[in-house]
Design goal:
Nucleoside Triphosphate Pyrophosphohydrolase, about 25% helix
């Protein structure tokens, strides 16, 4: 029986039937103290009795991340305010897609409990023990790749002077204004997300299937006369001063703050001689960032 616009089975090119007319999504919620949240599926569900993630069909008016958050709240009473979405992995079947959305808890607000008949239990499980459970086949196949990305942020550290130029800004005589506009465009990009393959994250298995919502660090407070000196912060964008240590100091600070993060540094070739490469996951040219910005915030 169809319950909502996205509820129903799809006959997939892979030869199987899948739930979700517009695909399906699940939330892989992680807590560094408690582990990952698994759902024991009720016997009447697909592969009932197995362990998997809370989730369900994507509705036509929502993204995969929104669907995963909504389904999780419906099934576990964990609200979206209790976690931060970091990334997602799409498993493409041609005519159907399952998206695993990775998130990390915020504080102690995530207190799951069974709230409907789709599950018989919810349990925090150490990542080291997940493979020992009788997992849903789709989750079991994806788990080794997913495990490697638990609680890992994508930190996009942007050298403002490299992107807009040290004095000329974006063709105007207003360098600070140019950096402010860059800051605002970066905020849009952070909300849309970035495909791993577009940022040379070759160390991520199946990079083309991964999207991250980056934490953006804009290095914009250099010496007087340098683009962005004294730029104000904005929601979702961390603004830091390059100072005497230059971009290298900002990179070292970002790595110290998140040793396991994917740290992507956007800076020009003439500034890469500073100690950046050994701390960064990837160093990309400003032209790469400009293309991404143009795709989501055309000028």
């Amino acid at each position: 029986m169809l319950v909502g616009n996205g509820d129903g089975f799809v006959s997939c090119d892979c030869g199987r039937r899948h739930w979700g007319l517009f695909g399906a999504a699940g939330l892989l919620l992680s807590d560094p103290r408690r582990g990952v949240l698994l759902q024991h599926r009720a016997g009447w569900t697909h592969e009932g009795g197995s362990w998997a993630l809370p989730g369900g069909a994507v509705q036509p008016d929502e993204t995969s991340a929104q669907a995963a958050a909504r389904e999780t709240e419906e099934e576990t009473a964990v609200p979206g305010e209790a976690f931060r979405v970091l990334a997602q992995r799409a498993d493409e079947h041609g005519t159907w897609r399952y998206t695993t959305v990775l998130a990390t808890v915020l504080g102690d607000a995530a207190r799951p409990r069974v709230t409907n008949a789709e599950s018989t239990a919810l349990r925090w499980v150490s990542p080291a023990d997940v493979a020992d459970y009788p997992l849903h086949s789709g989750f079991a196949a994806a788990w080794p790749e997913l495990r490697g990305q638990l609680d890992r942020r994508l930190v996009l550290l942007v050298d403002a002077a490299s992107v807009v130029g040290p004095r000329a800004g974006d063709g105007t005589n207003d360098p600070a204004g140019a950096v402010a506009r860059l800051r605002d465009r970066l905020a849009v990009l952070a909300g849309v997300g970035v495909v791993a393959g577009d940022l040379d994250l070759d160390g991520v298995a199946g990079a083309a299937h991964w999207t991250w919502w980056p934490h953006v660090v804009l290095v914009a407070g250099g010496p007087p006369g340098e683009a962005g000196a004294g730029i104000e912060p904005a929601a979702g964008i961390e603004t830091v001063a390059g100072g005497d240590g230059g971009i290298g100091a900002a990179v070292r600070a970002a790595r110290a703050a998140g040793p396991g993060d994917h740290l992507v540094v956007v800076t020009a070739a003439d500034r890469r001689r500073e100690p950046v490469a050994e701390e960064a996951t990837a160093v990309v040219d400003p032209a790469v960032l400009r293309r991404l910005l143009d795709a989501c915030t055309p000028v």
